[in-house]
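Section 3.1: Structural characterization of target chains.
Under the original work plan, the team committed to producing a structural model for every single-chain target entering the pipeline before any wet-lab resources were allocated. The record below documents one such target. The sequence was received from the expression subgroup and is listed exactly as submitted; it comprises 170 residues.
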Amino acid sequence: MQHIILTFAKEAVSDKVRKMLSGCGYDVYAVCRSKAELIRTIQGLSEVLVITSFKLPDATCEELAEDIDAEIIALIKPEQNEYINNEDIFKLFLPVNSAQMKEMVGMLLKRFKPPKKERSEEDKKLIETAKLYLMEKFMMDEAAAHRFIQKQSMNRGLTFSKMAQIILKK
């Protein structure tokens, strides 16, 4: 799952960007007001896209890029461009329109999608065994067991089959 997180000091700016993204078909996972809040929010998440301003109460967008593992779009004034030297920060110059936002967000979200790999027969058997174990031990139905493995693997940043191994302690 991809997580779009807005990080702006001003609530009005967050609301405006959220509406723009919503109009482009994107959902916002969370809204933060500072670097500290953002760091707490993204703990345990993968595939994070942060949309922020040049400066937050406790950091600049450059400092964010140094301290978090996420794609970053900075909405900046043209004169602020010279102060951003980190090439990993994607810049959109204010004022930003919906078409620009949609194109940039779409491009970055595509980077998160690795090619689908087919599970090996061994992994499929392992996952089925883990589901059966959960069903017997905790009286879950198959859908609940599947969701449990899925949620745990996402929370821990592990593959489905690795989580199944942990459940079975193999």
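Residues 121-138 form the longest helix (18 residues).
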